[in-house]
Specification:
Layout lengths: L1 E6 L9 H5 L4 E3 L5 E3 L11 H7 L5 E6 L3
Antiparallel strand pairs: 1-4, 2-3
Bound molecules: FE3-S4 cluster.
Length: 68
């Protein structure tokens, strides 16, 4: 199983802590909301559960997917 992050743009307030913690996975878009630039980036480089917990509005959800 691996975790794939998703941003709920309705909830995102542009706090940018996600980008600060994992710049390889999250990036701030031009509209001031985060986007996932690398859905496969969770793992050793980036603890996505920690990032999801750190987001102040819980805009990041993690989906478990089967690894191929
Ligand atoms: Fe938005 Fe949360 Fe990141 S508010 S910019 S998803 S830390």
């Amino acid at each position: 199983m691996k975790l794939v992050p998703k941003i709920d743009a309705e909830k995102c307030i542009g706090d940018a802590v996600c980008e600060a913690m994992c710049p390889d996975v999250f990036e701030m878009g031009e509209d001031g909301k985060a986007i996932v630039i690398n859905p496969d980036g969770c793992g050793e480089q980036c603890d996505c559960e920690e990032v999801a917990d750190a987001c102040p509005t819980e805009a990041i959800t993690l989906k478990e997917v089967e690894e191929e």
